Amino acid sequence: EILWNLDLSGNVITIFLMCFVFLLIFEFDFQSSVSTYAALFAVFAIFGRNIFTQWFDAVYFVFVLQPFEVGDVILIEDMRYTVNCIHIMYSEMTTAVSNGNTVIMKNNALLLGKDIKNLSKTQNPYHNISFFVSQLTTMPQLLTLKSKMEKWTRTKMKNEINDMWFVLDGVDGECRMKISLFIRSFHSWSDAKTMWRQYHDVNWQIMKVIHEMGIEYKRFSAQDVQMTALIDEANKK
């Protein structure tokens, strides 16, 4: 408990001293011990405190907090990701299809203060799927699209989907009409395999219906992909 009441620098110094005493108790060579710790303090002095701070934060995040595992579906500040690989300093994730389906790297130390929700470890039963159609799409077409999707969920997915909300989010800066589907499943994200199957089934049906109706459709744009691939949220400041 004493260590937790110290700041990071105090923790590092305390740990070094404890290890040094340990080496002396078990009769390690005094000169070798001093040389080892002198080298460590030299590295600390040269590279500064920040690298050690990030390393300790990352280790604490990965091994103590353990907010996610490989394969988990998570939300980081309301952005959906799938965890592909976890390293000490960074985690490799894939963004949602609506955000480019792009592989990105997240700094684990910077994730320490983020709002992270692990959908794979919750009983959350919801899908939130967004897509875009041309702003020239008429209201009758949008109503027909809504009707066809509702009919499909009531018939083909009656044992899978409990309810669906069809929301028009308006026209964005690229002159696209954004549509959001909020879908409540009979399952939850604790059964990630089933939820991902539903997610892809719904997306496939959206694309099929829109193409049959002759509506111009965009899942995401080239700009979305570029922004997601090249700019991490942590570096936007």
What is shown here, in short?
This protein is α+β, with helices and mostly antiparallel strands.
Structure description:
With 237 residues, the chain is α+β, with helices and mostly antiparallel strands. It contains 7 helices and 9 strands. It has helices spanning 8-25, 30-47, 49-65, 108-111, 139-155, 192-213, 222-230; strands spanning 73-76, 79-86, 90-95, 103-107, 116-118, 126-134, 161-171, 176-185, 217-218. The chain starts with 7 loop residues before the first helix and ends in a 7-residue tail after the last helix.
Q: Strands across the major sheet, in which order?
A: 4-3-2-1-5
> Rough shape?
elongated
Uncertain residue ranges: 1-9, 221-237
> How far apart are the first and last residues' alpha carbons, in Å?
36 Å
Helix content: 40-55%
β-strand percent reads 15-25%
Number of strands: 9
Q: Specify Rg, calculated over alpha carbons.
A: 25 Å
Note the run of SSEs as H and E.
Answer: HHHEEEEHEEHEEHEH
Could you describe the largest sheet, including whether it forms a barrel? 5 strands, antiparallel
Average per-residue pLDDT, rounded, comes to 76
Class derived from helix and strand content: alpha+beta
How many helices does DSSP assign? 7
